[in-house]
Amino acid sequence: KIPGTQLKHYQYRHIVSEFGNMITSIRFVGGDLNKPNVFIVHRDFEMDHTKIIQQVGYRLKSEYSIFNPLRIRWFSPKKENVLIKRNSFIEGDLMYVSEFLENIRIKPNSNPEYNISLKPCDNINWYSNYVAEYQKLFDLDDDFIEMAQPESETTLQGLLNKQLLFEIHINNQWAGVIAADFHKEFFLDGFVIYEELLIEKYRGRGLAKEIQLRFIEQLPHSENKQLFGTIHYQNIPSIRTAYAVGRQFCGMYLWANI
């Protein structure tokens, strides 16, 4: 708790601005009290112009002055590449990509050099190797920690119990893991790609598409169920894989410094 604050300061707020209505909330990234941000969880006006975003930022900075927020975050149904490119104070965040499972009819092409198979997990004895592979990614790129982090053993065990966690084997050797979970969010209902990690030896070899398609074949296909998930807008390899298997962009979150 921030000194001087009360319960009311942490509750959702309905704010009427010159542009329209907003429902907002204070949030702390990673639970860090030194990183207060204001999330706009609903609004009835567009935020697609720099001046509007700046004015909204000023207003929310004032409304939440007791926290001294650093940024605001909102959702856009559009690809805001131009907005991000033209304004250094605006950053992209997570993108939603989705498609109905019944529409993903692409068959995986076998690569003669790599014999890929998926095996339902019956244990997570590979967990230390899994975490070590993430550390290699962090060592290569300090910013990667903002895009993805290893899941806990408890989380992975839960996915195993649901029979939605698979080991990736390439040429009969352990090469990573892939997992999904049942989820419903906004207008999306189906499976979320929860994890997909290849060991260093096989990254950058164009194998992710085949692996994901083989995984999709393992999922129970129900009418009107979707395969969806979030990918950081700078995680280009994962975005390319998502598009390659037939998933489509359906919105993204953005940050603006205030």
Which terms would index this structure?
258 residues, alpha+beta, 11-stranded mixed sheet, 11 strands
CA-atom Rg in angstroms: 21 Å
Main β-sheet description: 11 strands, mixed
> N-to-C terminal Cα separation, in Å?
22 Å
What is the number of E strands? 11
- The low-pLDDT segments are none
As a percent range, the share of helical residues equals: 25-40%
Which secondary structure elements does this structure contain, and how are they paired or packed?
Elements: H1 7-10, E1 13-16, E2 21-28, E3 36-43, H2 50-63, E4 71-76, H3 81-86, E5 90-100, E6 116-120, H4 127-140, H5 153-161, E7 165-170, E8 173-185, E9 188-198, H6 208-218, E10 226-232, H7 236-244, E11 248-257
Parallel strand pairs: 3-4, 9-10
Antiparallel strand pairs: 1-2, 2-3, 4-11, 5-10, 5-11, 6-7, 7-8, 8-9
Written description of the protein model:
By secondary structure, this protein is α+β, with helices and mostly antiparallel strands. The protein has helices at residues 7-10, 50-63, 81-86, 127-140, 153-161, 208-218, 236-244; strands spanning 13-16, 21-28, 36-43, 71-76, 90-100, 116-120, 165-170, 173-185, 188-198, 226-232, 248-257. The protein has an eleven-stranded mixed sheet, with helices on both faces. The longest helix has 14 residues, at 50-63.
